[in-house]
Amino acid sequence: MPKRRLLLSRQVNVSMKTDLRETAIAFCVLLLFGLALGFPLLSKGFPVNGHDFWAHTTWGGHFAEQFWNGELYPRWLMNHNEGLGSPTFFFYPPLPFWLTALLSPLFPDESAPVSALAWVSTGMLVLSGWFTYLWLRDSVPARAAVLAAAVYQVAPYHLLIDLYQRAAFAEFCAMTWFPLILFAAHRLSQRRQQYFLLLALATAFLTLTHLLSLLMFGPIVPAYAALLASPGHRLRAIALTVMAMGVGLGLSGAYLIPALTLQPSIGMHRLWEGHGHYRQHLYDWERVLVWGQHIPFLLLLMLSIASSIVMAILLYLLARPPAASAHEVQPSGARAQPIHFWMLLVLVVGFMLTLPSDFVWQILKPLQRIQFPWRQASLLTVALAALVAQAEANVISDMSLPRRLLVLPIAVIVSSWLTLTTLHGVEILRQTPKPELNRLAHDAWEYKPRWVQGDDFQRAVKHARVADGRIPKARLSTEGKISVERWRPRDIRLVIESSTDAVLTVHQFFFPGWRALIDGKTPVQVQPSQPFGLVTLPLPAGTHAVELRLRMTPNERNGWLLTGLSAVGWLLCLMWVVRRPRRAQGA
Predict the structure, then answer these.
(1) What is the CATH number of the domain that holds 533?
(2) Cα separation of 457 and 452, whole Å?
């Protein structure tokens, strides 16, 4: 018996050393590959020609400025819109911008937003590969998991479209959390209950990064967990997965509740009208031909989606193991990768991108909020990684002629992805430097408070300017003197001298929560000006101190309460998980 135990112990040690070596090699490979893909950004900064470049760099600059001035969660961007303010981060998820804010002091002031976004994007690219490896390593050999993770990093919608072309910073970062969520759900479905905590955290990270990605990806997770669970535990797996994701939503309540409940205060509805209406972006052959002829970006997008679907079909054929060798594909004790599930997802997404799927969009109305149906290509990327992993695992065990014939077109598709990525990377390396933070840039029109009339901010900004072109902090309707004693986000103090009753206009946009006190004791009603939506209040004659604060709304308080309660629940679960092994050892 002692010899057998010693031999078993040695085998376990050898296995652990092998796993550690494989894990270290995988991490180094994915780190170097991610850094290579992100090299153009690290060299020249966030893509200047990307569609959303100005929005994210401007938001990032203002967010970091207020963060380092002591506001840990900036919601009201006081200096945005040329100093008139913006409620952007009442609605936009903050997590990616917390990361850029933390990095901003490492760069010169002028380049901080562009450089910080570039480094965070590259870091997220590396992490997305690493999380994909962790997720798939439970099902396939290390080599197959590394290859699948690399494909996830370089897949065209993830890198070429979302990052290089669109500069869609938040949506790009959201794809980092997809494989981490699937990893946690996979482990949880195998009755490893400590991964309940990780699934809750990963769901919170996704919610705080990009809400539309959660809307698309969320329903897939319980179905995936049910598929992996043993037949007698599927309902339990679904329940635990849904509960964990619910806790994750609760953890993000401080962001989520204001973002959902305050939307009537801005023009958010316009996102889903006109060009933003989902039906304008469902494909049929006529639109494919017209768009491809006139709009290069849409042609590139359609080619990337089409090539991903074709590659998924080839991988599915390659991933189906021969019956005689099926037992050799998976490591001992592991479940076969649910390739049918992922192939079904690919087909569903492909259908949902086309005009005949319109009746489904009409039934599932919440899906209309994703605005552009082609955003679902992010789900294609996840499915591709899963199919690549299983296909590579089969190739390792069986390299017959039919499999070689399938590998060739797959290699051609991946080579074309790498070529296009390289060409766009070179374009980024050649990009012309521009002012990294344009303080004259106006916010996206969907974040315009509803009291500001017109299609954009231009009229309000023009109205606020005085003769010399600058915008003062405030103005009076009559002759008088204004002194600024405090001008901080959501907290303003002015001293006003006026010989007659007057109307004070403070050059910040009106938003629910603005409250005013005169001389520290007399509340006065704050109203939006017409038609520009600026903060106005009546002021009696004389010298008065006016304190104006954008107080925490009930929506914010409820959000923080939900986050606090969810955090307490999460910590109690953590204590239970930590103490459980000790009780087991005592027993």
Answers:
(1) 2.60.220
(2) 8
